[in-house]
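In this supplementary section we document a worked example of the pipeline. Step one takes a protein sequence of length 270 as its only input; no multiple sequence alignment statistics are reported here. Step two produces a three-dimensional model, which step three serialises into structure tokens for compact storage. The input and output of this example are shown verbatim.
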Amino acid sequence: MKDLLWAAGIGLALLFLLIGLVAASFTSYHGDRERPVMNLRTEKEEPAAGESAAPAQLGEGLHADGTLHPLVETGDAGEDYLNSLTVLCDSSMDSLRSAGLCFASIWSSETGTLAMNDTDNWTIRYPGDGSQIGPASAALIAKPKILIISVGSDGLSDLSKESFVENYEALIRAIASASPKTTIVCLSPCSVTAAYAADDGLSKEKAAEINGWIKTVCVDTGAYYADLTEVLCTDGYLRDEYADGSGRALNNTGLREVLNFLRDHSTEAQ
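The serialised model returned by step three reads:
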């Protein structure tokens, strides 16, 4: 009797196992099929009614506490500090790549233009191998300790403050996501000379307006802000001795003034 009961129990167990295998063979799994993707352009969460918005910390190199963090004078940080910098720049400072004034890593497009109305499609010539990649991808590879951003002069036609700020902040958030420890410094625009009269939307007044927009970006993201106005401009105009032939970009003399400013305003001593 005992043997018969054991045999019956084993038979039932095998029957249930067979039923389970058959059911599993004809049943599909409907779990989460989405691949994890990093969203580099996420929307800010709105606080609930009656709550104040808490500053979002984007990375160790940013200090988003709702205030502006201007670079203050620290004394000469030396040539080694300059050479350790990475500079993302548009046409206003693109000549820094070929000027031979320092050994900083310079990121810019093949043409030197980085249009603010098309930031999603920016590609830079990566100094490491000459490849064409986006700034965030370059940050992911290089993990720069300090990134100086000098953009805001290109692609301004019909660009509103809201679009400018949104595009600039998305750029910073993408870079911070790719390299959280990178310290980011945003430079004010270098303006244009009094004789500049092109129809690209850039003027003394526009440069001043953009400077205010960049301050907003720095407050929102926690990036450092560097005001070059007193260094490069008189009455809001770029000084002639600092401008190249276009009247809207820096020559070697102007670039030296910017580099000297950065040496005397080290982020490591802020």
